[in-house]
Design brief:
303 residues, mainly alpha, three-stranded antiparallel sheet
């Protein structure tokens, strides 16, 4: 176990950038919920990320010719996880409120260290296990009577599975090599997510959407938001750890809940308790004990 005596660094630009996009991310849930009333989930995901990829391509059109194989395959891998997370989240929003979706999605926070352990053999801190239990209890309370009887509703279950895909996305982004061009990787991952959704539309029997005002404005708004969110995530997570990033992301459902409440959504008291437990689990998953040296200075565990 490694230790160090220096205090944790102050909040820097990467942390501030992630806090900003977390607020934007929280606002997207309500927009998606309205969009899926006029569009199938796959069509919306395909259009949303196509717009986002197009924005990125316009910004760095002179750099795309320099795309390397490493950037291509890295972007494709992240794009697959993005598709899984957002497609399942979009399907779930057809059955549950945006506030509930956001808090269930936050289940990925304590999942991140567990996935790192299973995939990359990075053993989680004991606090993570307590966080997972706490988050699961919160999930049961948030889903109401269905959850308490272990019979999750369709929307809740789909969203919870999507949270696992988002956890994998965050871990993959954190492992992007410093030698890779972040903008090119971002474009590939956005285009990959869009292409997968488009190809699956006929397989799933989903019809093309009606190009009405609600669909077009939602796609444009979330296309811009997705381009910004994915680029900032890639940029910031090259500078801070995946676990530190997930702690910041834990604030996303809070913003979604606030925006949802302004829009008229109301969660039952028991569901609010569950939402608080999920957020607390995210914080607990990052908690590390401090010990004091003989001279009184704190030693922070890094395992």
């Amino acid at each position: 176990m490694k230790t160090h005596a220096s205090p944790p660094p102050a909040i820097g630009l990467p942390e501030l950038a992630l806090i900003a996009i977390t607020f934007i991310w929280g606002g997207t849930f309500l927009i998606v919920q309205h969009a899926v009333t006029v569009s199938g989930p796959l069509a919306f995901v395909a259009a949303r990320f196509a717009v986002a990829a197009g924005i990125g391509a316009l910004i760095c059109r002179g750099q795309l010719r320099q795309l390397t194989k490493a950037e291509l395959f890295t972007g494709m891998a992240i794009g697959v996880s993005i598709f899984g997370g957002y497609a399942l989240q979009t399907y779930g929003l057809m059955h549950i409120t945006s506030s509930k979706s956001a808090f269930i999605t936050a289940f990925y926070v304590p999942i991140v260290p567990l996935v790192q352990w299973l995939v990359f053999k990075q053993r989680p801190h004991p606090a993570v296990w307590a966080a997972v239990v706490l988050a699961f209890v919160g999930l049961l309370l948030l889903t109401g009577t269905d959850g308490l009887s272990m019979g999750f509703g369709k929307g809740e279950l789909i969203t919870a599975v999507g949270a696992i895909a988002i956890a994998l996305e965050i871990i993959l982004i954190s492992r992007v090599s410093p030698q890779l061009n972040i903008l090119r990787v971002t474009i590939v991952q956005l285009a990959t997510a869009s292409l997968i959704a488009l190809l699956l539309m006929p397989v799933m029997g989903e019809a093309p959407p009606v190009l009405g005002k609600t669909f077009i404005l939602s796609v444009l708004a979330l296309g811009c938001a997705s381009a910004l969110i994915q680029y900032v995530m890639n940029w910031a997570q090259k500078r801070i750890s995946a676990t530190k990033a997930t702690l910041i992301y834990a604030g996303e459902p809070v913003w979604a809940g606030v925006i949802g409440r302004i829009a008229g959504e109301r969660l039952p008291a028991l569901a609010i308790v569950g939402a608080i437990l999920i957020i607390a689990a995210g914080i607990l998953s990052e908690w590390r004990p401090r010990r004091l040296r003989a001279d009184g200075k704190a030693i922070v565990s890094s395992d």
